[in-house]
Amino acid sequence: MAKMWAGRTAGETDRIADDFNSSIHFDSRMYRQDITGSMAHAAMLASKNIISAEDADTLIAGLEGILNDIDSGKLEIDMTCEDIHMFVEQVLTERLGDVGKKLHTARSRNDQVALDLRMYLRDEITTIKSLIKDLIEALTNQAEAHKDVILPGYTHLQRAQPIVFGHHLMAYAMMLLRDLDRFTDTTRRMNVSPIGSCALAGTTYDTDRYLEAEKLGFDAICFNSLDGVSDRDFALEFLSSCATLMMHLSRFSEELILWSSWEFKFVELSDAYTTGSSIMPQKKNPDMAELIRGKTGRVYGDLMALLTTLKGLPLAYNKDMQEDKESVFDAVDTVKMCLQVAIPMVATMTVRADNMKRAAGEGFINATDLADYLVKKGLPFRSAYKISGQIVAKCIADKTVLEELPMTTYQTFSELFEADLYDEISLETCVAKRISEGGTSVGSVEKQIAYVRKQIQA
Question: Which of 72, 156, 278, 436 is catalytic?
Fold first, then answer.
């Protein structure tokens, strides 16, 4: 089949080179954006009398017909075409004759593909943000249901201080709020129209780029035509936002994997999101969480691939830039799938509050509160810290815990200890006393939940 760009050359390439050059097997997913962009382009051409209003109406009706036929399955995308832009134009010309050949006036595939990719990502970001909000809602619901369940908080994966489970979950909700903001900010910079930049230098036609941008929902136009066709910063920003989101999902998945092990047994994941072993009948493996953790590296790779592709490219468009789409599309698919699995996995997990409380009762996680007790009695913190450490060592030697150490023993370390100590170092009191903004007290967690829900509804 002769290429639509035949002229300077015969338009005939080796079959292997043809396959190597083709992008339709992956850019065909942008057919809707390509056709929508072409409809706006036809309307703009007519508004500036570059083509007649009658021709524009014919082109728009023809494009609508192609879109409807692809949507319904009546028209199958021809994978032997070079790309989705050539396919649409070829079908349009077959259906409309010479009128179809007028569509590509005052534009190039260089600005056309830049337009399509921006529109595609703008649509996908809307979907991703909706999924993030659903995951935040699942986390928030679990946090509210377990806002008073005590468990150990960790640093260095060592038991550190008592917190409530709701507080731990809300930390991830805060991360996801930032992810929402990152995608929103990415969209703001992305929502600039490159169409009309043409191949690289603009066009001799008196076009109205602002009208075309407005019809397609863009906030502004690219002010430099070289930048308009060669800019892929928006794709990098999108991939960076995806990578950060996946990092957050991976961290949470790692905790779910730990928490669902026999060593922790803090949560139990639904059977719907676990698998068994082929030879060990007792196993219940957190495979979905492990896959999310594993696929994070894949999205990191997508970002690095595009960064590497762009790092040495001269202006303006180069065929290397065709490599942007597979990385972007892979990240889109991976992020959406991970979110779609994570949402119900979180919503259906069972929290083992008794195991959490049992773990909190070990490891001397109220030792800081023991030191704070002495500080409130007038002892300098460093002195209180040393005494508390000595008492912990005594408990370890005697195989007991702070709450069960006799008062007579406490008073051998300091005469400041009194009967009110035991209430002060109970886990419930330790949590309730964390009244600073953002802390782990139940009241603070309730404020965090209210804040997050207000943010996702805004």
Answer: 156
